[in-house]
Amino acid sequence: MISTYHTQQTTYNKPELMAPAGDWTMLRAAVSNGADAVYFGLDKLNMRAKAANFKVDELPEIISYCKEHNVKTYLTLNTIVFEEELSELEEIVIAAKKNNVDAIICSDLAVADLCFKYQMPFCISTQSSISNSLAADVYKRMGAVRIVLARECSLEEIKKIRAKTDLEIEAFIHGAMCIAVSGRCFMSHHLFGKSANRGECVQPCRRVYEAYDSSVDKSLIMGEDYVMSPKDLCTIKFIDQLIESGIDSFKIEGRKRAPEYVAKVVSVYRQAIDLYFSQKEGVPKNLLTDEKKKELLSELETVYNRGFSSGFYFDVPSSEEYAGVHGSRATTRKVYVGKVANYFKDIEIAHIILETGEINVDDNILIIGDTTGVIETKIEMMNVNDKVHPTAKKGDEITLKIPTLVRRNDKVYLIKNIN
Q1: CA–CA separation, 173 vs 157, rounded Å?
Q2: What is the distance between the alpha carbons of residues 363 and 290, in angstroms, rounded to a whole number?
Q3: Which of 98, 231, 251, 381, by CA, is between 20 and 30 Å from 90?
Q4: What is the pTM of this model?
Q5: Tens digit of pLDDT for each residue in 264-301?
């Protein structure tokens, strides 16, 4: 059931928060940090072929885990499909239906037709560049239950589309953007034979380039402007406006990023949405203040990002505001320090062996594992080689209280501030 928020004479639906899941660690991180839904690909026919992805025979376990936590599942089959792949595609659609995947995200009409044939709910991907209500109605007649709008749609355009279609609307709220229209780029294929439209993009747009003048045999390295490398989309400053526009599902990009990125971004947007829909004594009370947005933005800045942009939500962005970045602008980085040797569930104590580096009381650490997901915690006190001590170094064995279950061989990372 979709919860609603009433303010004066207006009612807003609480949007679904959808997170990327490139592997089991990311999936569990997304679920444990408050995602309402996850989207994931199999090892074939999805736009993130370079992500770890899942196997078809993992579908029962994925769906079971997500249903246990009341999280919806969306399978991405959103690449171009060639003739020789139609049989395999049909098998995947049948498997998705059999295992109760909530919906398939697709762009190729062959996928949509097979979904219709097997009564499998489907959503039209952003790859189809839907940017008006007439296009939405065409897909509705084909049986689509949801559309992912083109990333080039402004907030005002989204409102107009929302007013004219009853299809569910999904839109991106955070993550990487592409210099090409809705990601339909041929540069990677032209240079490296790896097609972005088949999920194989090697991101040549993010690189340093050399301009060569053959008449004088001279060249210049163009490594400052990065005009083809967009900043990341970030909507935390105006997430309330997106809620009020009537968007049904907020989508986070990032199936190829690290699990701690998924954990942090999902957690931040979960807080923002819940604060907007908070209540006091049964009466709706929006607690998402400008000050709180600033705090949440600071949290988002701690994980991988290329700098932040509002994308196309408020008109076509200038080149300075949209692109020109290289590498991460994160304010922190994770540094491997050791692994979990044991966890004593009854007393919530983790036994950790430091294999490198140093950690101290008041440091923040990450514990990451395929089954554990991502746990972030601050060291309040620790025993070092069976004695209370504020510092531990390589070779030390430490114990500290961690209220969330972690597991043997989970990796431990120190979160370091970047000056």
Answers
A1: 16
A2: 28
A3: 251
A4: 0.84
A5: 999 999 999 999 999 876 778 899 999 999 999 999 99
